[in-house]
Description:
- It is a single chain.
- This protein is an alpha+beta fold.
- The chain is about 20% helix and about 35% strand.
- It folds into two domains: about 1-35; about 60-190, Jelly Rolls, CATH 2.60.120.
- The chain is built from two helices and eleven strands; from the N terminus they run H-E-E-E-E-H-E-E-E-E-E-E-E.
Amino acid sequence: MPGRQRALYSQFVRQFSIFALAFGGLVATSCVTMPETYAPPIQRDPIENPRPYRFQRLIAMGDGDAEAFIVKDIARGGAEGGVWRWTQKRPTVRVVLRSVENQKLVVDYTIPDATFAQTGPVTLEFFVNDQKLDSVQIAKPGPQHFEKPVPAEWLKINADNQLAVEIDKLWVSPQDQKTLGFILTRMGLTQ
């Protein structure tokens, strides 16, 4: 092969090689598989009661999970004003304790002017696991606070302890005969 033809042939081979590499690279990058697609995760409603298994000793009626601790005679369906609930004859809550030592029953409540006008002075009896802790006569309406130590032998560890307050006279509605006890803000045990 004469020199000029060899030079043209070499130039052709180089250009063809460059073209082949470029074409091969283009083909290699255009045949990439796309990653698999996945459905979005299942959508769920938020947890309404995020702490159902916690140890709760002092039940505030405005807590979002307060109804889980109500046993009876306390209004359900949310706290009035986000803070308190109406009661009936013997409002009762349950609490679980890790320790029974140095516990005090604490109750914050209100005797409203409107109900007091009909009932007059009322007597409240405070119970822990159906044992009477104390009795208090309320001679005037308004906010009240009760706090008294509870004997350790009355309490149970890692089990439900029932706390109750019983009112001697209920207010009776003249229109529909519905009854109300008092306003409960919180009830439970503290150390």
